[in-house]
Each structure stands twice: as structure tokens, then as C-alpha cells.
Amino acid sequence: MSIIRTENLGKVYKGGTTALNGLDLEVHPGEVFGFLGPNGAGKSTTIQLLLNFIRPTAGTAFLFDGPVTCTKSRQRLGYLPESVNLQTYYTGQRLLEFHAGLFGIEPGVRARRAMELLELVGLLEAAGKSVSQYSKGMLQRLGLAQALINDPELLILDEPTSNLDPVGRRDFREILLEHRARGKTVFICSHILSEVESVCDRVAILKRGVLNRVGTMEELSGAKGFKIVARDLPAAAIDALSTSAARVTLHGKNATITCGDEEVRDEVERVLRESAVVIEHVEAETQSLEEIFFGAIDRKAES
Amino acid sequence: MTKLLLIAADTIRALLHQRLLVALMLLALGLTAIFSVLATQSKDFILEAAERAAEMEGTDMDEEQLEQARRSMDAAGSFFLAALYWFTALGGSLVALYICCTAVSKDIRHGTIPIILAKPVSRTQFLLGRYCGAISVLLGYSVLIAAALIAFTYANQLEMNVAARYAPWLMFCQSLMVGSVGLLLSLLMHPLIAAILALFATSWFFSPPNPLYFILPSYDRFNVFSLISGGRLITLEDVVILTFYAFDVTAIFLLLALWRFRSKEVL
Q1: Which of A184, A199, B6, B99 could form a disulfide bond with B134, CB atoms 3.0-4.6 angstroms apart?
Q2: What is the pLDDT of residues B108-143, one digit of tens each?
Q3: In a domain, A293, yes or no
Q4: What are the helix (H) ranges across chain A?
Q5: With contacts defined as CB-CB under 8 Å, which chain A residues touch B13?
Q6: Is pLDDT above 80 for B159?
Q7: Which residue among B14, B116, B119 places its CB closest to the CB of A89?
Q8: For residues B215 and B225, what is the distance between their CA atoms, to the nearest angstrom?
Q9: In chain B, how many domains are there?
Q10: Do the Cβ atoms of A48 and B119 come within 8 Å?
């Protein structure tokens, strides 16, 4: 079973702008899926297609293995848009009760659920305040609360922390992690790469409407090199290493030897063994999400 | 059904928070009061003029003069009543257009629609909920207007003729039609243009064999002003037929609006 599945999904807007082209994607139950890409990459278009706000010009999209046009599938879904525009003529509590009603939650349960969520997002004190008086950060928190009102199996978040301060971002991350811990699925679009890196199980990178890379952080990062820390490196070993592809950095009697790949690492280790040098440790250097992201969009640009 | 009612209730709440709409409604009620005062003053003026004419002749008003003055007073009262109906009908249509043309387009413009449509709410439920909410406000407004008209009629001791009796209901029926046309057009174009077009989208401007005569709704049949000023009495049977006609037209335009909204891209 897949929570989200798209097959060759495409969208060309009137005027000929291609927003999305042949997107094949699958999001599995219980995973936090990061959807990345620069502005205009087609992230929001994908979400709008998934929520049936717009119609695809090619391919199909599925939610919970059913067509996205099926209203029932949205019973199990929570959505927080990039711009949180809520009805300003409600108080925070009444707004959540209204949205709870749309999920068919019993009137008696609505108020309790609303208060629980207001507490979760830190808006309990503003529960009786008109939404028109909420700040941007408060609206973002309230938006998250309405997205969680039905305890959704799938949470779709579009730039969820754009208006939050550092405390709000930390709170949001905790809520997300707690959601994941309960086996729920999260589909998150964000420009904040560190945030995605810290919470996502898998990541997809979109560039100009085309899926560029998809995989777990481990799969995407790969090993970009190795770092060997050695103690009491003799001059002979330094001379031997200087002729290899490794780069040696000395710190007193210690040295850090950077190797570009496994072949160089093996060569360095051989030299060090022959010189009877103690190897403190060897660590693989991996790419950060930021490096993967920029690498992906640069590589695409080159092609 | 619950979701539809929730959306309708949400619409009512949203509309009652709109200052422009409330101002428009108060203006219409204010016009009723103004007309009431004008009618009273015109009657006084007619009576005074008759008395002055008699004084100039150096005689008291005889029965014939009194009867003539009374007829003039009734005519003036009827004129003001008809004019009042015309204004309130126009006010009702404007309120209906304002409410219905913004019912969905405002959600799209303000960006509140995605959060609602991401819920298990079908587009049909959403649109009908918005329309029902709008019509509920319109019904409330019509009841207020009806109360004001009755008060005006009694305050000026006017005869409540048959046409006047059914006037508020006919105005409401007209608002239903105008509103549904406005709703459909607002899904196709800017709400302001939609409102203007909806107001003038009537078969009155066309005559057979122009196909628009048969397609567009006829509002003039609901024009209470022409019914009263033309002295035409209207029977209950006429009202029933007109009601069916209004509901029919409303249903057709609502179905067209639904068809359009179901395929509309909501960005």
C-alpha cells in the first residue's frame, strides 16, 4: 500500500508553462517525506494536484491507493498550505470546531479536540481571541492545529515553518516527530534544508518540474571521501603520502589525511601500516542535504 | 448534509461580518423610513393645499373637494408605496448580487478555499452550502423589508392590495434568480463584472426570435412597481406560477454553476 502515488504526473498551465513533467513518486506509510526544489520547481503544483485543486494534463495521482478526486480519501488527510489564510471572523477555538465539523467529528468532541490542539500548538491562551488579531506566527500554529484536527494518517505541509520563530520551529519539529512516532505519514515541502534533513526519512528533489533525485539521506549522500586521523606520523610517511592523491594536514605530531575515494584510502592505509603508524580512526565523509540539493540542481542545469 | 449546513452557517457568519453588506441592508431599511416620512408629508401637503384653495375661494371644503383631496392623497401614497417597492426590490437585487457574486469568488481571492476543500467536503457541498447561506441572509433581509413595508403601509393607512401583499415574496424570488445568475457568472469572470452582467441579463432587453429571450430569466414579471402602478391585481395562482418559474430558473443556473465549479481550478 502507498499513501501517495503519482504516475507520469504532469501539468501544463494555460499559456504553455510546464509546471510538472512525468512525476513518478511513491510515499510509503509511516515515513516523513521531504519534497524539495527551488522556487518554481513544481512542488506546490504537485500538492495542488494531490489535493485535486487543479487537474493534471498528464498522468494520474493517487491518495491511499484511490484517485485524488475521491472526497473520502481526504477524511484521512491534514493539509497546511504555504499561505495560511483562515476565516478571520472566528475565534481560534471556534475555527477549529468548524473545521472539526467538516470531518464529521461529533459536536461534543469538537470543543475538546480544539482545546487539545490549541494547547499542543501553544495557543491555549489565545483560544477565545479573534483570528483577525492573530500574528503571522500564531496563524501558522493555528493552521497546523486545523491540519491535525482529525488526527490524519497523512499530513501534507507546504512550507510549514516559514512564519515561525526558532522556538516555533523547534515546537513544530517535536510535533512532527511525535506524529511520525505514532506511525503517521508526513509529506513536507520546505526550503529550510536543515529542517528537512533533521526529520525526513526520504527526500525527493524537483527541478523545473522534473524529479531529479529521490531516496533516503544515506542513499543520496553517498561517501564523498574519507578522513584518516593518525598519530606520530614520521617524515618518511609524510613524504610517501605527499606523492599519493591524499591530502595531509599536520597538527603537531598528529595528522589528518583526507582521501578522495576508497582506492586512495587503501593506499594511505598501506603506507601508514608500513610506517608502523597508529591510526586513531577512519571516518567516511558524507554530503549534507544542502550539498546534495545544490549538487542536484547544478548537475541538472549542466545537463 | 451536516457539512452543507456547516458551510451555510459559516457563510452567514462571514456575511454578517461584512460591513459593506450590513451598510447596504441598513441603507435599504433607511430608504423605507425616508419614503414613509415623504409619503406622510406629501399627504399633509395635499390636504393643506386643498384647504388653502378652499380658503381662497372663501368657502369651507365641500364633500367633493374632500373626496378629491383624499383621492390625491391615496394616489400619492400608492406612488410612494410603488416607488418604495421599486427601491427595495433594487436594493434586494443588489444585496443578492453582492452576496452571491462573492460567495465563492471571495474564498478564492482570499485563499481560504484550499483549506476547506482539502477536507472531506465535495465541491457540490461547498457551493450549495455557500448558496444556502447566502439565501438565508437574503431571506432574513426580505423578512425585514416585508416588516418595514407592512409598517409603512399601516403608518400611511394605505390599502394593502393583493400585489403589495405578495411583493416581499416576489422580491425574494427575484433575488433568488439574480443571485444564482450572479453566482454562475462570478465563477467565469470578475465578481464586479458578473454582478453588473447578472443584473442586466434579463430577457426584457430582447424579443423573439432572439434566442437570448428564451435563455435569459425574466425579472420584469416580478416587478411589483409595474404591477402596482399599472393597477394590475395579482392572484395567488400567479404568485405560485411565478414562484415555480423562479425556482426553476434558480435550479438551472445553480446546476450550471455546479458544473462550472466542479471543473474549476482552485489556486
Answers
A1: B99
A2: 888 889 999 999 999 999 999 999 999 998 888 888
A3: no
A4: 43-50, 92-102, 107-120, 136-147, 166-181, 193-199, 217-221, 235-242, 262-274, 289-302
A5: 89-90
A6: no
A7: B14
A8: 24
A9: 1
A10: no
